[in-house]
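Model it.
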Amino acid sequence: VQLQASGGGLVQTGDSLRLSCAASGRTFSGYAVGWFRQAPGAERDVVAAISSGDVTYYADSVKGRATISRDNTKKTVYLQVSRLKPEDTAIYYCAARVGSYMYSSAEYDNWGHGTQVTVSS
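Modeled.
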């Protein structure tokens, strides 16, 4: 499966953003998808994940501010983040794997190019 992340941009503190991860290729419904982010000099960390059965996970850093969802008819997974903070600034990546979602980026073998999110203070 090929993935393409989009929806990033320059926003202000307190704004909301919706990122999209569009898939192409093989059947998408059986994949778990994770959203990761990587700030300069930092590791790539999981932000949120969703299983093929719509079970979701959120990192503490975005819990209560983020919603991950999927539309299998459109082969797209969304990440909505509200009340954005400067520390949310990073490149956001989506990744997919067959089976359950995982917290580690090393467990995913399908990656899209990232989309930059910059939150100004």
